[in-house]
């Protein structure tokens, strides 16, 4: 017996509430761990006053997340109760009869509204919480420019992709998912190869690492493990935050290592090389390609599921809409898919944590585990990281093992 629109409506409400309750419970369990004693292996990460500062930072973020997520939930439930999707659908249909234009307007208005509603929260997080704990270095001008550029990219890139996907749907109906999958797969590969060249310069300056001891040491290590290190770039992360990072990007001849300038300031030469050894480990172990393949397969699975739901008129009727459309089917599916998304997210995090151990082991075997441990401790200290997270939070949300787990693995 098929589900009625009313049943679908209440199913959507149930999914929204269950996902919220689970996330809130995980945050609560994690918050209860803040005052736990620091493991002996990590007792040199923080001094007493620094440890208290890290606890205060975590509590501030916890309280902020509870308030912001609760308000977001209430807004969404109110929007559903007032038939907001039906009113928006009527609005876009009154503007245009073209399905692609309707879809772009519908999704665009929702995203723009979400961005406007989240703006004060993002502002508070950056200029109150991050400022209070001495992380924020961005200016209000940079903050606003970042928002504008991100929105512009979303309109241009996201709008183009959505237009093509709706066009595929108009041409092929239930088989649209194959063409949409190929499109997004191609775009994903393109982004992996050229993101650092095409999009990063819109937000940050990247300069080649200057000649000197650090570059010589990095190149010497890369040569020792047979890694062709063509490009080493320094990114001006300090213009926004004091937090440090490093990442590997690109494929084939386009691969490059990018170091945050804050990383170079915070770590010794040997510790930076240890970080590079970890990143090279990801490449040598094939993690970049495996993650890309998994991402493409997951995208295909998602589009296939979407194709099973997209033409169902009951989804539109559940939102009080009489005429089904691609855009309303996409929104309804996004909510219904969220439990599956949580599960696939957990599985991807399990894979990611396994890869992190493998990259650490590669760095330990080809360079020096003590320098890697020292770099991990410094980065955790400078980021006021949580040294005692709850195991459930780690299992569900962490893409990296905890600091304690990584150190124990490196010392085995």
Automatic annotation (TrEMBL):
<feature type="transmembrane region" description="Helical">
    <location>
        <begin position="176"/>
        <end position="195"/>
    </location>
</feature>
<feature type="active site">
    <location>
        <position position="279"/>
    </location>
</feature>
<keyword id="KW-1133">Transmembrane helix</keyword>
<dbReference type="Pfam" id="PF16491">
    <property type="entry name" value="Peptidase_M48_N"/>
</dbReference>
<keyword id="KW-0479">Metal-binding</keyword>
<dbReference type="Pfam" id="PF01435">
    <property type="entry name" value="Peptidase_M48"/>
</dbReference>
<dbReference type="GO" id="GO:0071586">
    <property type="term" value="P:CAAX-box protein processing"/>
</dbReference>
<keyword id="KW-0482">Metalloprotease</keyword>
<feature type="transmembrane region" description="Helical">
    <location>
        <begin position="100"/>
        <end position="119"/>
    </location>
</feature>
<protein>
    <submittedName>
        <fullName>STE24 endopeptidase</fullName>
    </submittedName>
</protein>
<keyword id="KW-0472">Membrane</keyword>
<feature type="transmembrane region" description="Helical">
    <location>
        <begin position="62"/>
        <end position="80"/>
    </location>
</feature>
<feature type="transmembrane region" description="Helical">
    <location>
        <begin position="288"/>
        <end position="310"/>
    </location>
</feature>
<dbReference type="InterPro" id="IPR001915">
    <property type="entry name" value="Peptidase_M48"/>
</dbReference>
<feature type="domain" description="Peptidase M48">
    <location>
        <begin position="209"/>
        <end position="412"/>
    </location>
</feature>
<dbReference type="GO" id="GO:0004222">
    <property type="term" value="F:metalloendopeptidase activity"/>
</dbReference>
<comment type="similarity">
    <text>Belongs to the peptidase M48 family.</text>
</comment>
<feature type="binding site">
    <location>
        <position position="356"/>
    </location>
    <ligand>
        <name>Zn(2+)</name>
    </ligand>
</feature>
<keyword id="KW-0378">Hydrolase</keyword>
<feature type="transmembrane region" description="Helical">
    <location>
        <begin position="6"/>
        <end position="26"/>
    </location>
</feature>
<feature type="binding site">
    <location>
        <position position="278"/>
    </location>
    <ligand>
        <name>Zn(2+)</name>
    </ligand>
</feature>
<feature type="active site" description="Proton donor">
    <location>
        <position position="360"/>
    </location>
</feature>
<feature type="domain" description="CAAX prenyl protease 1 N-terminal">
    <location>
        <begin position="28"/>
        <end position="204"/>
    </location>
</feature>
<keyword id="KW-0645">Protease</keyword>
<keyword id="KW-0812">Transmembrane</keyword>
<keyword id="KW-0256">Endoplasmic reticulum</keyword>
<dbReference type="InterPro" id="IPR032456">
    <property type="entry name" value="Peptidase_M48_N"/>
</dbReference>
<dbReference type="GO" id="GO:0046872">
    <property type="term" value="F:metal ion binding"/>
</dbReference>
<keyword id="KW-0862">Zinc</keyword>
<dbReference type="InterPro" id="IPR027057">
    <property type="entry name" value="CAXX_Prtase_1"/>
</dbReference>
<feature type="transmembrane region" description="Helical">
    <location>
        <begin position="150"/>
        <end position="170"/>
    </location>
</feature>
<feature type="binding site">
    <location>
        <position position="282"/>
    </location>
    <ligand>
        <name>Zn(2+)</name>
    </ligand>
</feature>
<feature type="transmembrane region" description="Helical">
    <location>
        <begin position="316"/>
        <end position="338"/>
    </location>
</feature>
């Amino acid at each position: 017996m098929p589900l009625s629109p009313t049943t679908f409506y209440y199913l959507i409400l149930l999914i929204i509430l269950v996902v919220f309750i689970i996330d809130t419970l995980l945050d609560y369990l994690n918050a209860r761990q803040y005052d736990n004693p620091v493991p002996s292996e990590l007792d040199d990460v923080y001094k007493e006053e620094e440890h208290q500062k890290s606890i205060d930072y975590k509590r501030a973020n916890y309280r902020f997340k509870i308030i912001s997520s609760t308000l977001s939930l209430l807004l969404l439930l109110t929007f559903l109760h007032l038939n907001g999707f039906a009113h928006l659908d009527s609005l876009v249909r009154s503007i245009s009869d073209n399905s692609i234009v309707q879809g772009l307007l519908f999704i665009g208005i929702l995203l723009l509204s979400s961005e406007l509603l989240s703006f004060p929260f993002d502002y508070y997080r950056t200029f109150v919480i991050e400022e209070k704990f001495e992380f924020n270095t961005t200016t209000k001008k940079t903050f606003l420019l970042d928002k504008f550029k991100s929105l512009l990219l979303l309109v241009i890139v996201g709008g183009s992709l959505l237009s093509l996907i709706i066009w595929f749907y108009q041409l092929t109906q239930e088989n649209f998912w194959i063409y949409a999958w190929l499109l997004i797969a191609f775009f994903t590969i393109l982004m992996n190869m050229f993101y650092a060249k095409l999009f990063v310069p819109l937000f940050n300056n990247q300069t080649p690492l200057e000649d000197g001891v650090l570059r010589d040491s990095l190149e010497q290590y890369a040569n020792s493990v047979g890694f062709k290190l063509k490009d080493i770039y320094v990114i001006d992360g300090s213009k926004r935050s004091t937090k440090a990072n490093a990442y590997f990007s690109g494929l084939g001849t386009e691969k490059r290592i990018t170091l945050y300038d804050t990383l170079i300031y915070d770590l010794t030469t040997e510790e930076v090389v240890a970080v590079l050894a970890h990143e090279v480990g990801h490449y040598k172990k094939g993690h970049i390609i495996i993650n890309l393949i998994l991402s493409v397969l997951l995208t295909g699975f998602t589009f296939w599921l979407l194709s099973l739901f997209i033409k169902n008129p009951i989804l539109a009727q559940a939102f009080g809409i009489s005429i089904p459309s691609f855009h309303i089917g996409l929104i309804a599916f996004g909510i219904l898919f969220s439990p599956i998304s949580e599960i696939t997210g957990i599985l991807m995090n399990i894979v990611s944590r396994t890869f992190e151990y493998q990259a650490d082991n590669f760095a330990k075997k080809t360079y020096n585990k003590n320098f890697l441990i020292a770099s991990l401790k410094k980065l955790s200290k400078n980021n006021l990281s949580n040294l005692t997270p709850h195991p459930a939070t780690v299992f569900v949300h962490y893409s990296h093992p905890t600091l304690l787990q990584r150190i124990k693995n490196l010392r085995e």
